[in-house]
Amino acid sequence: MAAQTMAAKPDPAAAPGLAAYPVDVGAGDLYRDAAADVAQTWQRAAQSLLALREEAGVAVQELVGRQILDLGMSFRLTGEDDERDWPLSPMPLIVGAQEWAEVERGLVQRARLLEAVVDDIYGEGRLVADGHLPAALIAGSRYFARSMVGVAPRSGPHIHVYAVDLARGPRGQWRVLGDRLRLANGIGYALENRLALSRVTGGLLTDMRARRLAQFFSDLRGGIARECQRENPRIALLTPGRFNQSYPEQAHLARYLGFPLVEGRDLTVSDDRVYVRTIAGPKRVDAVWRWIDTNALDPLRFDARSEIGVPDLFEALDRGGLTLANWPGAEVLEAPAFAAFMPRLFSVLLGEEPILPNVATWWCGQPREAQDVAARLDQLMITPAFGTGVEGLPHGRAVAGRSLDKAQRHALLAAMARRPVDYCGQEIVTLSTTPALIGEAFVPRAFTVRAFVARNAAGEWAVMPGGFARLSSSGEMVNTMMGEGDISADVCVVDTKADVAAVNATPSVLGAPPPVRRGGGILASQAADNLFWFGRYVERAEATVRIIRAVLGNSIEVDAAAGHSPEVIARLVDLMVTWGALSREEADLPMPQACAAALSDTVMNGSVGALFAAIRATALTLRDRFTTDFWRIASRPLPPVDGHRAGALLRTARELIERLSALSGLLAENFTLGPSRHFLDMGRRLERAVALCQTLRALSARIDTPEALGVLLDLSDSQITYRARYLAAPSTAPVLDLLLLDPTNPRSLAFQAQALVSHIEALPALREDNLPEAPLLEARAILAPLSSLPVEAWNLARLAEAEQRLLTLSDTISTRYFLQFEKAGVGASSSLLA
User: Fold this and answer.
1) How far apart are CA 451 and CA 675, in angstroms?
2) How high is the pLDDT of residue 25?
3) CB-based burial of residue 372 (10 Å sphere; 0-12 exposed, 13-18 middle, 19+ buried)?
4) Which residues form the DUF403 domain (predicted)?
5) What are phi and psi of 435, to 5 degrees?
6) Which helix (H) or strand (E) covers residue 99, if one does?
7) How far apart (Å, rounded) are the C-alpha atoms in residues 484 and 460?
């Protein structure tokens, strides 16, 4: 039913926030076209947002922005390396339940059709044989997976979940702009938008009777689990990795759904089953929700150049050892050229007229259509037929023909004449508008909606009661990606009668309450590796910054570090060269410039700047495990470095130590005592122990001087402990005992060794004979002399031996826990990180 048949002019006096909303009902606006009861919901939402602004004393956009930061919502524009905060409008896009019911029916109908088409393309092939689809339409798509012809899921469908972009026209009719079967991008942002808006607006969504989203995600999970062959199946979300544009969304989805977030190198295939490599050995994976292209899934079957896939994954699929959502090759239907044939396919396969029609499309692979598109170039959008960049289109993307200048027009027509199959013409869509709160006023913004459809535990289609809207800054949307200046909005489907309580009776958690259990689930080997190295990078950065602070403090403060001698300072600088924080040439610069280089020269991989970059990069891979506060500190960029003022540099060093100390505190307090905590802290303890050994050896020639002893206490943050214990100037034996052998000092070598032993003892073992494994034996060998020998027995040779054993322990940990599973069983392999 078209929305305008229910329209009633809202009463401006009843809605101060929307009284001046400047849209003519004839132009097609979601609020102006709304039925009277839905319009009242719009009015309540506007009034509530304005009241919230008055109550909080700040713009509502700022309140939303805080929630964006707390949730860690971010995205990247195409071509950019840095992430941006997700742009969310405080005003939701409101659709009445009656209007949405028609959309929902249309989406389910379309999902049925898409499943039937995919089944035919990779099955009997009757659509091509009977002339309903040109063979070139299928073979020309980069997403057509020839290897999947004749290979069907053993049980269940080809499509489990998909997204569809919708546009609403001036007369209230909804139409399909495009289907997304490869990746359901935006499904996580729809969830995050709802969470952020709920936190900002309190009970507004409940007052609006907005339908909840939790049941849809429960249905999605149940639909994938339905095809698995055992109870409580393990479902993993397969990501391309942190460099993918939607990685933040994938991490949030994995955390919300309780799916392990894995990359291809986390998985291996053995006996036609898929396993995730974990610290406790291989664990079977029953289903995978893939977020990578078909071509990248299995380098042995599809594209041999893929570095993110899983070798032999195809064999597991072919023999029924894995459920995959969606089935490889399903994305062939994403090609815009398919839209030209959808009306016919509805009739042929379903015997029905489409409830949600496509945007009118003409594929130039047919002579008559090619001539028509060329003749009507100024009236159409010209788009690549198969979704890839083609000659003659600026940036390879869709473009309005009327926007081209004479030379561009001539070049495009020539390219279309050479290879007409690569182009489509589509009607230019006039989009409806919706109220958006921009600054202090509600203004109209053109919008599209991304909706989501998934199979539930009964195998039936379920539609998310909402989605996310993209509000254009320009009024045009030539592609479906977020662009510069665009903002998103939560799509709320609202019920308008008091007797619909049952609709919203769904709990906010996923499905039925799970059984009580403890522990954090499986820990993939790669995640353990990244946690281990995250701890090492944090500790390594802190050790370097402490040396910089000691050097700078000596140069500008009379009382700092007991006035270190030039020889001590020189040895500290040499140590930074050894650690890769400085080049030899930079070490010869005046001290402020040398310290500035050690802070900011990212060419040197041991510099503080490089280490902070490593911290941020590693944190990205662990996004689904970190709290918001932890993530905010870990991802914060390096503060400005002023290489001309020693005082400013010293303040920067102190700020960095405070930040690193905050990270260490969160590591200690915010991780439960499980495998994740063990690997994080093992990395810190091992790095701290190695740094202490190397620092002691670097200052060995001056170890009996007050200057050197004072530096050691400073760098180990043990000055206060020493003074409280001895009430005397630093002396060699007491200082060395405190830093080497005292098991109660959190900075001592003995403390680090004991912590390493305790962590390794707590990790799962692979041996069935209960004998200690190599990492535990090595850690105990490090601890033994620290527990049994007096301080007088420690010399350079013994210190060097301890350092070498620590480095050996690092290799042993990597060999045992990181990517240790091979097809033949458990074997040695190298660490993921060099």
Assistant:
1) 38
2) 62
3) middle
4) 523-818
5) -65, 135
6) helix 97-121
7) 38
Q: What is the DSSP string of 65-85?
A: HHHHHHHT-EE--TT-SS-EE
Both 759 and 687 in a single domain? yes
Q: What is the CATH number of the domain that holds 407?
A: 3.30.1490
Let me know whether 474 and 566 are in one domain.
Answer: no
| Domain contains 515 | no
Count of structural domains within the chain: 3
CB atoms within 10 A of CB 171: 14
Residues 365 and 329 both lie in one domain: no
- 447 and 398 within one domain: no
Q: Which residues touch 111 (CB under 8 Å, ≥6 apart)?
A: 159, 162, 453, 461
**Residue 684 belongs to what H/E stretch?**
helix 675-698
One domain, residues 472 and 600: no
Residue 566 makes CB contacts below 8 A (sequence gap 6+) with none
Angle at 760 between CA 759 and CA 765, to 5 degrees: 135
Average pLDDT, the chain: 85
779 and 693 in a common domain = yes
**pTM for the predicted model, two decimal places:** 0.83
Contacts 24+ apart (CB under 8 A), 613-622: 614/533, 614/537, 615/534, 615/537, 615/538, 615/541, 617/242, 618/530, 618/533, 618/534, 618/537, 619/534, 620/242, 620/247, 621/241, 621/242, 621/526, 621/527, 621/530, 622/527, 622/530, 622/531, 622/534
The whole domain housing 536 covers 525-826
Cα gap 693→740, rounded to integer Å:
9
Is residue 592 within a helix (H) or strand (E), and if so which, with residue range?
A: helix 591-600
Query: Is pLDDT of 296 > 70?
Result: yes
Is 830 a residue whose pLDDT tops 70?
no
Q: How far apart are CA 500 and CA 496, in angstroms?
A: 8
Q: Does residue 272 lie within any of the structural domains? A: yes
* DSSP bridge partners of 361: 426
pLDDT at 55: 78
Average pLDDT over residues 418-426: 94
> With 90 as the cut, is the pLDDT of residue 163 above it?
yes
Taking CA 196 as the corner, what is the angle to CA 480 and CA 214, rounded to the nearest 5 degrees? 80
Residue 44 lies in a domain: no
- Regarding whether 197 and 226 lie in a shared domain, the answer is yes
pLDDT band of residue 621 (cuts 50, 70, 90) is confident
User: What's the angle, vertex CA 193, arms to CA 638 and CA 188, rounded to 5?
Assistant: 85
405-412: Cβ within 8 A, 24+ apart: 409/377, 412/377, 412/382
Residue 760 shares a structural domain with residue 708: yes
- How many CB atoms within 10 Å of residue 581? 32
Span 390-407, mean pLDDT?
Answer: 87
CA distances from residue 380 to 239, 383, 410, 429 in whole angstroms, order as listed:
37, 9, 16, 9
